[in-house]
Design a protein that fits this description.
- This protein is α/β, with parallel strands linked by helices.
- 36% of the residues lie in helices and 27% in strands.
- It is built from 11 helices and 13 strands.
C-alpha cells in the first residue's frame, strides 16, 4: 500500500527563522484529502513540498514512491494548481494548457488534443480561444484546474480549488474530484469552504502553526477526543423541563436554552449515555422533536483542537 501513498516522514521546513511546517509525518492514501487550517498554518508549504517546488530542511517525502527531488518523474504523475493567478493574460486558455503539455514531452497534436479535453472537463470549451485577460475570476480558477488535470496525473494537489466558483460549477468540480478518487487517484486539496470539506473529503488533516493537529475522518477524529464534551442540539416542546432532566445526568456538563425556549445546546461527556437519557425522557412523554450533533464538522474540530476560529 505504501507505494500508492503520499508519505511524509518527520518533515520540517523553515524560511530563515520563520516556521513553515514542523516535524510533519503523514501517510495519505488515495482518495480526497482536505488540508484545513487558518492562513499561515502551513497548508501551502505542505503542498509545495509534495509538488517538489521546495524541499524540506529535514525529513523525507515520497509521492507514490517517487521523491520530489526527482522532478521529471514527479511531474509526470502530479498536477498542481496553486491559489495564485499565474496564467499569462496574453494567452488564450487553449494556448496556456497546450504549451504546458508540450513541457511534458507531448507532440503538438497530442498537446492540442489533451488541452481541448481538459478545458471541456472544466466547462471552458466556449472560452478556450479567448484570452485569459478576459476571463472572470471563476474562469481563471477553472483554467488553473484544467492545466493540473490535462496530463491525467495520479496525484492532484489543489490549493483552494473551489474558491471563486459559482455553485453549479463548484458542484461539477466536486463530482470530478470524486471521479478521480474512485479511480484510485489522490486528490489533495486545501479549502476554507468548510461545509464542503466536511461533505466531500475521505479524510481531513487539520493544520495549525505548522504542525498536524489531527487527521482522519472527521467523525473518527472527533470521537478520539475524549477530553472534550460532545455537543448536541435538541428541539423539544417542553425544552426547559427537558433541560432540567438532563442536568441531573452526571455525563452532562452544560445545557443552554435557546432564545425561543424550544431548543437546547447540550454538552455531554458520553454520547451513549446521552442517547440513553434522551430516549428515557422521550418515553416519559416529553416531546423530543429532533436531535442533531453539532460538532462533527471542521469548524467545531478547530474550536476544540486549536482554540480559535478557522479562517
Amino acid at each position: 500500500m505504501n507505494g500508492a501513498e503520499v508519505i511524509l516522514e518527520d518533515v520540517s521546513k523553515f524560511y530563515g527563522e520563520v516556521l513553515g511546517v514542523n516535524r510533519v509525518s503523514l501517510h495519505i492514501p488515495p482518495g480526497i484529502t482536505s488540508l484545513v487550517g487558518p492562513n499561515g498554518s502551513g497548508k501551502t508549504t505542505l503542498m509545495n513540498l509534495m509538488a517538489g517546488l521546495i524541499h524540506p530542511d529535514r525529513g523525507s517525502i515520497r509521492v507514490r514512491g517517487i521523491s520530489p527531488r526527482d522532478p521529471e518523474r514527479l511531474m509526470r504523475i502530479t498536477g498542481y494548481a496553486t491559489q495564485y493567478d499565474a496564467a499569462p493574460r496574453s494567452m488564450t486558455g487553449f494556448e496556456f494548457i497546450s504549451s504546458l503539455l508540450a513541457l511534458h514531452g507531448h507532440s503538438r497534436s497530442r498537446s492540442a488534443q489533451l488541452a481541448v479535453q481538459a478545458l471541456e472537463r472544466v466547462g471552458l470549451s466556449d472560452a478556450a480561444h479567448r484570452k485569459v485577460a478576459g476571463y472572470s475570476k471563476g474562469m481563471r480558477q477553472r483554467v488553473r484546474l484544467a492545466q493540473a488535470i490535462a496530463h491525467d496525473p495520479e496525484v492532484l494537489i489543489l490549493d483552494e480549488p473551489l474558491n471563486g466558483l459559482d455553485p453549479l460549477v463548484r458542484a461539477e468540480t466536486i463530482e470530478m474530484f470524486r471521479g478521480e478518487a474512485a479511480r484510485g487517484r489522490h486528490v489533495i486539496l486545501s479549502s476554507h469552504v468548510l461545509q464542503e470539506v466536511d461533505i466531500i473529503s475521505d479524510q481531513v488533516i487539520l493544520i495549525a502553526n505548522g504542525m498536524i493537529a489531527a487527521e482522519g475522518e472527521i467523525r473518527s477524529v472527533r470521537e478520539e477526543m475524549h477530553e472534550h464534551p460532545s455537543q448536541f442540539l435538541v428541539r423539544a416542546r417542553e425544552a426547559s423541563r427537558v433541560a432540567s432532566l438532563l442536568f441531573l445526568q452526571d455525563h452532562v456538563t452544560e445545557v443552554r436554552l435557546s432564545e425561543d425556549r424550544q431548543g437546547l445546546l447540550v454538552l455531554t461527556r458520553s454520547r451513549e449515555a446521552f442517547s440513553q437519557a434522551l430516549a428515557s425522557i422521550a418515553l416519559d412523554g416529553y416531546g423530543i422533536e429532533s436531535v442533531a450533533p453539532v460538532d462533527e464538522n471542521v469548524d467545531a474540530l478547530y474550536k476544540y483542537l486549536i482554540g480559535g476560529e478557522p479562517s
